[in-house]
Structure formats: C-alpha cells, structure tokens
C-alpha cells in the first residue's frame, strides 16, 4: 500500500470485497501463500483453507490474525496510538508493538486519519465521556458508528481481514449474523 486509499476515488470494482481469502502452506514449512477464491467450495476443492471471508488484503496474514485473536479489545489501544498519529513513526511503532505487520499497520493508519477528519469531535466527546463501545440498546456509540460509516468500507476492503469476517468476537458487541462462522485450525497434529 503506497497511498492513502481514502484519498483515491474508489470504483465499485475497487470496493468489491466478494470472495474468500484462503491459505495454503508450503509442505514441510510454516511458510504459506494467500489467495482469494470466489467461493469456499472452490478453495476446499483446490485444498486451500479459508482464513477469512472477503478478499485477501493488507491484514490477511497469520501474524495479523494472531493480533486479532490475542487482543479482544483493539479499540482502546489503537485509539491511544492514533492520538499520537500526527507523528507517523510513533503510530507505526505502537502498531508494531501490538504485533501488526507493516502493511496492516498502514491501513489502520489511513483509517485513523480518515476517522479523525470525519469524526474527530464526535470521537473526542465519546473518549472524554468514557463511553462504552455499545449503547444500552446494543447499537454502536456515535464515534464507532461514525467510523463504521465513514471509514469502515475502505478499511474492510483494503485490510481484507477484520475480526468480524474472521469469526472473532471482539469487545464491540455485534449481532451473531455479522460475525462469520469459522475456526482457525490450520494444522493436523500428525502433519507437524
């Protein structure tokens, strides 16, 4: 990722997330390939394992998956890191300390910059008030809703992997139907 996707006119083709990102290990190693398939069935027929719904992207690696699995709440730490995002090197250092790959950290950076442009006042008020991620009725607080609408579609497309499309429950309450049903078992104990 060499430029901010939020500053590029996005065509419907560019924004399409349709597909399934699958992984295939190189026999005898822990190295792997990632590839987007049209359907889960197509990936299985070619002996690939789906690692998340939607096309592969900047956060589709297993290292980024490990970060998502380890940190149930990424909202708070990424918000703190984004608060110092006016110094990019500190943002990337913070994201690296969480464990993200460089490419995944870039889409998070561009997402945080766009959310600051579009939702700064709303999010500052939410942060100062110490609002929970979800309102009493289960809906997103105003900051997360603004981020979801203004930054979410581009983030989801370019990141590839999100917690929701990877079947990971996060600190943000979501309807079960919004979380892709899958597990992350890539090895048989006999093959290691």
What does this structure look like?
The model has no long low-confidence stretch (mean pLDDT 91). The protein is mostly helical. The two termini are 34 Å apart. The chain is 44% helix and 9% strand. It is globular. A three-stranded antiparallel β-sheet has the order 2-1-3. It is built from eight helices and three strands. The chain has helices at residues 12-15, 40-45, 62-70, 75-83, 88-98, 102-129, 142-150, 152-159; strands at 20-25, 32-37, 49-53. It has one domain (14-191).
Tally the helices: 8
* N to C succession of SSEs: HEEHEHHHHHH
Major β-sheet strand ordering? 2-1-3
| Strand-pairing-aware structural class | mainly alpha
Q: What is the end-to-end distance?
A: 34 Å
Summarize the structure in short.
The protein has helices spanning 12-15, 40-45, 62-70, 75-83, 88-98, 102-129, 142-150, 152-159, and strands at 20-25, 32-37, 49-53.
């Amino acid at each position: 990722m060499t430029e901010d996707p939020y500053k590029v006119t996005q065509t419907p083709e560019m924004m399409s997330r349709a597909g399934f990102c699958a992984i295939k290990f190189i026999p005898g190693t822990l190295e792997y390939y990632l590839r987007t398939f049209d359907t889960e069935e197509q990936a299985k027929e070619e002996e690939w394992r789906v690692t998340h719904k939607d096309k592969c992207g900047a956060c589709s690696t297993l290292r980024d998956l490990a970060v998502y699995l380890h940190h149930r709440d990424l909202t708070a730490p990424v918000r703190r890191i984004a608060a110092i995002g006016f110094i990019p090197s500190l943002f990337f250092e913070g994201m690296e300390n969480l464990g993200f790959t460089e490419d995944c950290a870039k889409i998070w950076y561009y997402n945080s910059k766009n959310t600051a442009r579009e939702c700064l006042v709303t999010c500052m008020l939410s942060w100062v008030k110490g609002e929970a991620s979800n309102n009493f009725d289960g809906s997103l607080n105003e900051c997360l809703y603004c981020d979801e609408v203004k930054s979410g579609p581009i983030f989801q497309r370019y990141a590839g992997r999100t917690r929701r499309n990877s079947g990971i429950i996060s600190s943000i309450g979501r309807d079960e139907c919004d979380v892709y049903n899958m597990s992350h078992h890539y090895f048989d104990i006999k093959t290691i």
